[in-house]
Amino acid sequence: MNLFRFALNNLQRRPARTSLTVSAIALGIAAVVALTSIAWGFEASWQKANDARGTDLIVTRAASENTMPSPFRAEKVQQVLAALPHVKEVVGLLSEMLTVSDDAPPVFVFGWVYSSYLWEHLKLVEGRWPNASAEPVVVIGALAAEMLHKKTGDQVEIEGKSFQVVGIFESNAVVENGALLMTLEQAQQVTDKPGKVNVLNIKVDANTTEADLRNIKEQVKMTLPGFVAITSGELVSQNAVVRISKAMSNATILIAGLVGALVVFNTMLMSINERTREIGILLALGWQRGTIMKLVISESVILSLLGGLVGILVGVGIAWGLEHIELMRGKIDAIFSIPFFLEVQALSIVLGICGGFYPAFKASRLLPSSALRQE
After folding, report:
1. What range does the domain containing 19 cover?
2. Among 171, 180, 229, 234, which is most exposed with the fewest C-beta within 10 angstroms?
3. What gap in Å lies between CA 183 and CA 115, rounded to an integer?
4. Are 265 and 214 within one domain?
């Protein structure tokens, strides 16, 4: 019988304790998987939405770290940006999270400049686009249409004003699929923010180099005090919600690691105390002290690996459930990957080694003569 099989048999002899230990580790790992995938997904969802629009740089207030950057008057800023070298188009965007139905959660409402490049990446699956900047209509994402139970020709009420749904679209970004879209002029009117935008999107010409982009960033910093030109990734990474969610994820990893190691430590220490005579017999039969350590650590690693596998499955289920609750649908898209799961299992192995090291060392230091006298 090899060492692994011997360790597995030892764990099977105590099914209740083994099950409880695996469950405790699994809960910690599940929390890590769920929170981390949601935090990464929240960041990736917004970055994907920005990237899908074909925007090269985003100009916003330098101090704004909100989910939606603070609105500002765009006219003068837009004129300065349009005059910069290599800038092909400057387009304003206004975003708000608003309630549009009494029986559905709030959704994002985007206001985009009529007939600008921002609309080009969307796929119209039903109906039409707005015909004019002043037309009081909306188009809605496929997911939003499902959540709000709306179809082409229906009416939606936003901030006390009625809009007709004239089209349904699809986007590669889940944030846009769960949103309502109208022209910027209409969004400014309905939110009572005339002339204001959250961000200005810059599209540069095809000959622009990385050095040119850096030059544009420097020009914005020098000519527009209080504003900054950044990439979509930089905008999302400085978002306060993203940073808080990542901090919570890191804290969960730390807490889950400490608790998991302590659970393994307690389980293995109790096991060693109960098996003192058995270990003494193994030593008397000629087992090396190093082999005893390997046996105990093998048991602790098996426990943590099983806990890790169960925790990954539970964590994926939790994240999937959070994605599909009404309040979160269309706002996040949890991210899972094989490298991430391998890292989680590596964490489980580390927990097993750390939690089992001292009990293994204690077991290897037992004297056969003293151990055999234990009842």
Report:
1. 3-46+241-372
2. 234
3. 9
4. no
The two three-digit tokens of residue 148, written as one number: 């709000």
Gap between the Cα atoms of 178 and 333, Å rounded: 11
Residue with tokens 């889950």: 256
Q: Give Cβ neighbours of residue 346 (< 8 Å, ≥ 6 apart).
A: none
Which H or E run contains 300? helix 289-324
Please identify, among 187, 211, 230, the residue that sits at the C-terminal boundary of a domain: 230
Question: pLDDT digit of tens for each residue in the chain (375 aa)?
Answer: 577 787 788 788 888 888 888 888 888 888 888 888 877 777 777 777 777 788 888 888 865 555 567 788 888 888 999 899 889 999 999 988 887 876 667 888 999 999 889 998 899 999 999 999 999 999 999 988 888 888 999 999 888 888 999 999 998 888 888 889 999 999 999 888 999 998 899 998 888 888 988 899 899 888 888 888 887 777 766 666 667 777 777 787 888 888 888 888 888 888 887 777 877 787 788 788 888 888 888 888 999 999 999 999 999 998 888 777 766 666 667 778 888 889 889 988 888 888 888 888 888 887 776 756 655
What lies within 8 Å, CB to CB, of 204 at 6+ separation is 56, 57, 86, 87, 88, 212, 213, 216
Whether the CB-CB separation of 319 and 334 falls below 8 Å is answered with yes
Q: Are strands 87-98 and 72-73 parallel, antiparallel or unpaired?
A: unpaired
The answer to whether position 365 is within a domain reads yes
Regarding whether 32 and 64 lie in a shared domain, the answer is no
Residue 236 in any domain: the answer is: no
Residue with the two structure tokens 């269309």: 330
User: Within this chain, do residues 160 and 245 fall inside the same structural domain, yes or no?
Assistant: no
Do residues 63 and 198 share a domain?
yes
Give pTM, 2 decimals: 0.70
81 and 123 part of one domain:
yes
Given 203, 230, 257, the domain boundary residue is 230
Residue 359: other Cβ atoms inside 10 A: 24
Classify residue 260: in a domain, yes or no.
yes
Let me know whether 208 and 276 are in one domain: no
